[in-house]
Design a protein that fits this description.
The chain has about 160 residues and is an alpha+beta fold. It has 4 helices and 8 strands; from the N terminus they run H-E-E-E-E-E-H-E-H-E-H-E. It has helices at about 1-20, 95-105, 125-130, 145-150, and strands spanning about 25-30, 35-40, 45-50, 70-80, 90, 115, 140, 155-160. It has an 8-stranded mixed sheet, covered by helices on one side. A hairpin with a 7-residue loop joins strand 4 (about 70-80) and strand 5. InterPro entries: LD_TPept_cat_dom, Transpep_catalytic_dom. GO terms for molecular function: carboxypeptidase activity; transferase activity.
């Protein structure tokens, strides 16, 4: 009887926790000047993280190699669990507008802009690395933060990157 009661309580606890839906992001907002990423479910803020940006963070990405993080409205369109960083989620840069701007300037627009964790194998250096802008234009989080974002974002999801 005692074993039955323990099993029933354990099953009830597992079932009850399974009924609580995880909050999923329906919109992502990045404030480059504040170095913050916000996840929203509708109008409800569900998470906020400090981020690192491209090494030349001021201004919109103009071309490949400029080390800038793009600005504007994009879509998080696919996830890469086997990235050279701890997980990554692709940002749909370059848009048609970005491509046209680069074409007018006669330069390649660049691409492979992601939200990602730390470089694979980096270890405990993440807190130090995250104190400055270090990417080639991506938005970087710690690995733990990236795991949380990974779980809350089901692609596709809109993202707005503000100056």
């Amino acid at each position: 009887m005692r074993l039955l009661a323990i099993l029933l309580l354990s099953t009830a606890a597992i079932t009850a926790s399974a009924w609580v839906p995880a909050k999923k992001a329906t919109f992502v907002y990045v404030d480059k000047s504040a170095r913050e990423l916000f996840l929203f479910n509708g109008t409800q803020l569900i998470a906020k993280y400090k981020v690192a940006l491209g090494r030349s963070p001021v201004g919109h990405k103009q071309r490949e190699g400029d080390k800038r993080t793009p600005e504007g409205a994009y879509v998080l369109d696919y996830k890469n669990p086997n990235s050279q960083y701890h997980r990554s989620i692709h940002i749909s840069y370059p848009s048609r507008r970005d491509q046209a701007l680069a074409r007018r300037k006669g330069v390649p627009p660049g691409g492979a802009i992601m939200i990602h964790g730390q470089p694979n194998g980096f270890g405990r250096g993440a807190p130090i690395l995250q104190q400055s802008d270090w990417t080639d234009g991506c938005i970087a989080l710690t690995d733990e933060q990236m795991d949380a974002v990974w779980d809350m974002v089901d692609v596709p999801v809109r993202i707005l990157i503000a100056p």
